[in-house]
Amino acid sequence: MCQAAQQSRPGLDCSTLSNMPSLLSSLSAQNPTLRAQTALFPNGLPSHLANSTGGASIFPENLLLGANGTASGSGNQLPHNPIQYPPGLSSYMFESRRYSEPAPPPAHLLAQRRKSRDGQVTYLWEFLLRLLQDKEYCPKFIKWIDQSKGIFKLVDSKAVSRLWGMHKNKPGMNYETMGRALRYYYQRGILQKVDGQRLVYQFVDVPKDVQDLFDSGTDSGCSDAFEEPDSPPSTGSPSQVLPTSGHQITKAFDPLSVKIIDEA
DNA sequence: TATCAGGACGCAA
DNA sequence: TTGCGTCCTGATA
């Protein structure tokens, strides 16, 4: 697989690849959407995560794999963007924006945008969350330090950055570059740095209901029982109600349960 | 040496 | 326009 991967990704580190044997299959051949959705929402997708057109899946069709879980491609190529978004993640992804921006476009325009990008909309924070949800990589490469608070650590920063580079078809990706992208999230209220702890970041303001879901023993994440949080920062960042002309977003960052209050 | 913060610029979607 | 990717300087562990 590594050789095949190297053909399409010059510079790929085989030693790294050998340590992450199921990354590609995990990112392409599985359907964690349904798995995660079942785990997180055994009673069905919450209404606020369903779209406004009647509760149908919020996931764009081209992001959902078929029942056989196969991804397009010959199998010799790395999937470019085969991530299947757990519930809530895609909700945030498609509803999120910079909060200084005007209101988001209507849902049908978002749908057009999604289609226009042919399923290639993906963000670093989603990628990290995906890794955190996958026992193949968590806690091996990335792990929760305090899952209920959204605090995680890049155990192997190089491997994670390479994975990100593979995903984005950027063979030159390294932690320095990925870290810059992570730091952009500070301004946007998506991440914050955990002071005094290297490679430790925190998703901002993880809501209580998500904490409950994480704590309920689902397979949606992992943690390292041997490592207690050293000194997590104050996590009491207040929830924010960010009014827009069409929606209210009740959290600065709420990847698993962004609440969109449709005032239309 | 590695990590981290953040400015500046560029680019693909 | 967005979300980075890249390069950079400087600080810190």
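qc> The first strand of chain A starts at residue 142 and ends at 146.
qc> done
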